[in-house]
Design goal:
Blueprint lengths: L1 E4 L3 H8 L5 E4 L11 H16 L3 E10 L10 H7 L2 H10 L4 E11 L11 E4 L5 E3 L9 H5 L5 E12 L14 E3 L2 E2 L5 H7 L1 H13 L5
Parallel strand pairs: 1-2, 1-3
Antiparallel strand pairs: 3-4, 4-7, 5-6, 5-7, 7-8, 8-9
Length: 215
């Protein structure tokens, strides 16, 4: 059974489109503050694995506004809680900065190392450093695991769009103000959203790799 660390039922529904035997785990792991979603997701996956003691998936997602140098990006949840989705949308439209992306990083940790693949591996050596593999996805060796490291495999997905007036009743977060191909994410059915969403694309990449993962 693969544990997906989230209390968001929408995320689980998306995950079930790509993964078999996935279960939600309610664990409030400490979310570090960082400029990189990869770092945030990797650290979350490590904390969750240590807590659950079983293979886990954690994701981090954000809204990136081109006109605001990618803001709110990794800080999207905090900005949603403080400024609110509608205010973010209004600011983007007022500044004519409506070009945007949804981006997501799915992080997987099972306590073992990984063979080299195109996906990046983030390796924590537990000595105060965080060693991120380059975009070629260098292998996390068994020696590193033996020394106490917890390698995390990372999978990314993104979808382009633009910021519009809120529309739609479905979805969550920034979905009502994010338009892709003529409709906001909140105007799409779950199946339609899964087919194009940033999280869906990251999950599809993960699922393709995971099906061949050794037990």
């Amino acid at each position: 059974m693969l544990r997906y660390v989230t209390t968001n039922e929408g995320k689980i529904r998306e995950a079930e489109e790509y993964l078999e035997e996935v279960a939600a785990v309610d664990y409030d792991y400490p979310e570090i503050q960082a400029d990189s979603m990869r770092t945030i997701a990797a650290e979350g996956a490590r904390a969750a694995y240590r807590h659950v003691e079983a293979p886990v998936v954690v994701d981090d997602a954000g809204l990136f506004l081109e006109g605001f140098d990618g803001f709110p990006g990794p800080y999207s949840s905090y900005v949603e809680d403080t400024l609110g989705v509608e205010r973010v949308g209004r600011l983007a439209r007022e500044e004519d900065a409506t070009r945007a992306w949804f981006r997501c990083v799915v992080a997987y940790c099972d306590g073992d190392g990984f063979e080299a693949t195109p996906e990046p591996v983030d390796t924590d050596d537990r000595r105060g450093r965080n060693l991120s593999a380059d975009d070629r996805g260098a292998a996390a060796t068994d020696d590193a695991v033996a020394e106490g490291a917890l390698p995390v495999r990372l999978f990314a997905g993104s979808v382009p769009g633009r910021i519009v007036e809120p529309r739609g009743e479905d979805g969550f977060g920034y979905d009502p103000i994010f338009e892709h191909d003529g409709r906001t994410m909140a105007e799409m059915s779950p199946a339609e959203k899964n087919a194009v969403s940033h999280r869906g694309r990251a999950l599809a990449s993960f699922a393709e790799w995971f099906v061949d993962r050794e037990p």
